[in-house]
Structures are given as structure tokens and as C-alpha cells.
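Supplementary Methods, section 5.1.

A reviewer requested that the exact input to the structure prediction be made available. We therefore reproduce it here, unchanged from the version used in the analyses.
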Amino acid sequence: MKNYQAPKDLLHNRVILVTGAGTGIGREAALTYAAHGATVILHGRNVGQLEAVYDEIEDAGHPQPAIIPLDFEKADDKAFEGLAGSIGLQLKRLDGILHNATAALSPFPLELHSMDQWLQLLRVNVAAPAALTRACLPLLKASPSASIIMTGESHGHTPAAFWGAYAVSKAALEPMVKIWAQEWENLHPNLRINALIPGPVNSPIRRKTHPGEDHLHMTQPADLMPAYLYLMGDDSSAIKGEVVTLE
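The structure derived from this sequence is encoded cell-by-cell as follows.
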């Protein structure tokens, strides 16, 4: 998967929603999906960052993207349904979602976690991807081949001290992926969902949680894109309900 060589037209005529598309892995995935033919919907909270990614895609001559800002910490069901409705109204289809938007805290003891911190992390990292996926299901079911990627995390897959609610919230994505895959197996064979754990990578969250690392000499977001392309394109159509680690 890490060495996958995607055809240039892998995502031709596809519409892909990328959450957290303003920086890091989300930004790189949005640029990469657009370069392989997708019309990319850029989600995030910072409109300025999204506009910069939009301009990069436009300047490169790729399909015109769209921007849909939404704060996952404050969004409710109505907001997610509105987002899905906007996609249906403007673009008429949806063929994939990369759930990349993430909330994180620096490591500290679990006993010090406040209720507000628990709710913030669970809301952004678990409830929002679930609610957004549910809202977009009518569009995804109408696609001949739809792929959903949940972004997992190493400490959620292998729990470790001091990673607290962040690890718990990321761990919750793994059973969610497996449950949805089983529920769709017979009713919606055109749908697939998997979790992807990128491992240590130079990203805004990694720089926040590991400020002392030499981030320039570690894995970069671009290094991961073969796997992100593979799981979004049809070459991975038989892979469903898996937790894929890139470490």
C-alpha cells in the first residue's frame, strides 16, 4: 500500500469530502485527490487556510474544488444535515469522505481530564465523524463505489499512559468502522469504510504533542499519499472494515 502507484485518473469524476483540509495530512490529501481527478470539498474551521488550498488546486489546473466551513465542536445534527444538503444541491453526488479533522491535547494524566476536555475530544473525534457520515449516507449510497476513511491514531490502537481522552476517542473509531462495515456488507456492497493509522508524521497535531522532535526529518504527509489514494480508489474495493497501520 505504501508503494501503490495510482493511475493519474484514479478519482476522475469523483467528489471527495476531506475534513480538516486546511493543514497537514488533510491539506496534502486534498491536493493529491484533486491531482488524480477528484472534485474535492474542503472542510475546516479556518476559511483562510481552506482558501489557500483552494487556490493551490485551481492554480494547478485541477477540477474546481468547493469550500464548506464548519466547527465540529459546535455542530449539531441540523448542521451536518445542512452540510450534506449543500453537497447534494451544489455537486449532486458524493463518492468518498476522508475524516481527517481531529482535536488533540498534549499528553497529561487521565485523572486530570475535565469533563469539558472529554466532551471536546469525543465530540470532534468520534461523534462528528459518525454524524457527518450518517448525514451523507443517502449521497454515498447513490454512488457506484463509495469509500470512507476514518483517521485513527497509534495511541488509540495501542493505549499508552498519558494519552487519555485523545487515545480513547481515537480508539472508538475502530469498532465504529467494523460495525458499519458489517451492517453495510449485504445491503450496500458499493459502500466501504476503513480506518487508517498514519503513524508518526510531521503534522500540526504532532508538533503540538511532540514539540521537541526533529519534525523535518520524519515522515511527511506526502509520503503517506499512496495509501490514502489506494483506500479511496477502486483498487481497494474488497477492503472493508479494516484498521490499516502505516507505521
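The two ends are 12 Å apart (CA to CA). These observations are discussed further in the main text.
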